[in-house]
Design a protein that fits this description.
single chain, about 550 residues, alpha+beta, Pdz3 Domain, four-stranded antiparallel sheet, 28 strands, about 35% helix, elongated
């Protein structure tokens, strides 16, 4: 059934994209009154078809590609007197150019329509609230807190988190004026987004701005920082999830802190879920619970103003799992250790894990604490070379740090999209441009040798991608369709004979020499171009079959 469903998704995807591509040629040909003999989806024998006017519309047996057959494309075809002036070759160069370019252009426009349609379904969006603030970030330096709502940046109203990112990302190191709503109080801060390198595709990076805030709230999973603090004395342990305070439900760390501060000087009863000792990254549950919830009485000092005063913090920087065969185990890192700094820089909220992978091949000093005793060691992740699993050269070198921290987040409650049309259009433009960039970078890395030629795929790979995307839902399928449409449009513009780009070269040469390219020369070039395409298709299909065999 998987093969059948994948084949169905493949036929739908290819059928739609070929229809769009050939439709671009067809519409432009009709616009300039060129006689069209045939509009075909697929090649080979006709399966279904009908004639309307002078054109035969048909679906052919081989569902890969299609064509629009116009009068005058076949040099041996006799042109009747009543059809004079209606042949493709009778038209001026600029009209022939537009007819040829119409197909690829439609493939480049179609993703905008697909993404816009998907964007219209995004009726609920994340508000422009601060879920958490990363230590030592521009947001932390400005005093932003979890729960703050960003209402404008540089005078431009901001309603959603994505709108905030859209303003911040293009402005690294540029000071921006933020207006903040904090529980009804309006504050203003000048914040300069920090420049960071973000991965675009594989090794390709770009510089963007980040202020250091998250779009989800930290859940109420705690870590113990002071073994003599009120929290530890009450019996709390690192990785305990506090689910209620005096029977009042708690999900977020900020709400837990608010309840604790509000109960200063009192004794409260905490409902606690305790993590299993055998936690691993492969644990099947979001929070691996050990036994039934515990009841812990916590006496809160009168001076408490934060969780820090109880010797507690979030669990993000505590080691929850150590691979006994990994690099972390070799330096003595253990479950429950608290990460402090890496490369001499104090980091928090999981930043150490990110910092390790920025330069994974470089050894740097890792500092951590265990029962308030500080330890340091030079640390470098274990190198895992590519090509160990018969990957056909597709896999890349990897690194394994050999440990995992643990934290959960609680998503914000979504709000109704206040500007669905404009946000859908912005989403459409961003996703289409991102797809074009991804394809362009992929070609660049391929030509530079940073991506193996074995990564090139053919119809089987397209069928697999279409099937997997289709199983994930309509949005994923349309996204994949948009990406392949961009591929089809850009590939067809390459200056290779047989492709549309090659035909455009012939038109350009004709415009320069003021006469048509010799039919004999054109035929020879077309044979070479056809051979190139056939060889590429055979190579791609061989890669597909090899992947199926190797797994």
């Amino acid at each position: 059934m998987t093969v059948v469903s994948y084949a169905l998704y493949f036929i739908i995807l290819i059928g739609v994209l070929v229809f769009i591509h050939e439709g671009g040629h067809f519409v432009m040909a009709k616009l300039f009154k060129v006689k069209v003999h045939t509009f075909s989806l697929g090649f080979g024998p006709k399966l279904l078809g009908f004639r309307k006017g002078e054109t035969l519309y048909k679906i052919s047996a081989v569902p890969i590609g299609g064509y629009v057959k116009m009068l005058g494309e076949d040099p041996s075809e006799e042109i009747k007197a009543e059809d004079r002036g209606r042949a493709f070759t009778d038209k001026p160069l600029w009209q022939r150019f537009l007819i040829i370019v119409g197909g690829p252009v439609m493939n480049l426009i179609f993703p905008l329509i697909l993404h816009f349609g998907v964007g219209l379904t995004m009726t609920d969006v994340l508000p422009s609230e601060v879920g958490f603030v990363i230590p030592d970030s521009p947001a932390a330096a400005a005093g932003l807190r979890a729960g703050d709502r960003i209402i404008s940046i540089e005078g431009d109203d901001v309603d959603t988190f994505d709108e905030m990112v859209a303003i911040v990302a293009p402005n690294p190191d540029v000071t921006l004026r933020f207006k903040i709503d904090r529980d009804g109080e309006i504050l203003e801060h000048d914040i300069a987004p920090e420049s960071i390198e973000a991965t675009v595709v594989l090794s390709e990076k770009e510089t963007i701005g980040r202020i250091g805030v998250g779009r989800s709230y930290l859940s109420s999973v705690v870590g113990v920082t002071d073994l003599d603090g009120p929290g530890a004395r009450a019996g709390l342990e690192t990785f305990d999830m506090i689910v209620a305070v005096d029977k009042q439900e708690v999900k977020r760390l900020r709400d837990l802190e608010s309840m604790i501060v509000a109960s200063a000087g009192k004794t409260v009863t905490l409902s606690v879920r305790r993590m299993r000792d055998d936690f691993s990254p492969k644990s099947p549950l979001p929070y691996p619970v050990k036994g039934e919830p515990l009841k812990i009485a916590l006496q809160i000092p009168a001076h408490v103003s934060s969780l820090d005063d109880l010797g507690l913090t979030c669990s993000t920087d505590f080691v929850a799992y150590v691979d006994p065969r990994g690099a972390a185990a070799e330096i003595g890192l253990k479950r429950g250790d608290r990460l402090i700094s890496y490369g001499g820089r104090p980091l928090g909220l999981g930043q150490i894990s990110s910092a390790i992978y920025k330069k994974p091949g470089e050894a740097r000093v890792l500092e951590w604490s265990r029962k308030e005793q500080r330890m340091t060691s030079s640390f470098k992740p274990r190198f895992i070379p590519a090509g160990q699993a018969k990957d056909l050269g597709i896999a890349r070198d990897a690194y394994d740090k050999g440990f995992e921290t643990y934290a959960q987040t609680d998503p914000m409650e979504k709000i109704s999209n206040p500007s669905i049309i404009s946000s859908a259009w912005r989403y459409s433009k961003d996703e289409t441009w991102a797809g074009i960039r991804m394809i362009g970078i992929g070609f660049k890395l391929l030509f530079r040798g940073e991506v193996s030629m074995r990564s090139i795929g053919g119809p089987i790979m397209i069928g697999q991608l279409a099937g997997m995307a289709g199983e994930q839902g309509a949005s994923s399928f349309f996204w994949m369709m948009a990406l392949i449409s961009l591929n089809l449009g850009l590939l067809n513009l390459l200056p290779i004979p047989v492709l549309d780009g090659g035909q455009l070269i012939f038109i350009a040469v004709e415009g320069i020499i003021r006469k048509p390219v010799s039919l004999r020369i054109k035929e020879r070039i077309m044979v070479v171009g056809l051979a190139m395409i056939v060889m590429l298709m055979l190579f791609a299909t061989w890669n597909d079959i090899s992947r199926l065999i190797v797994g």
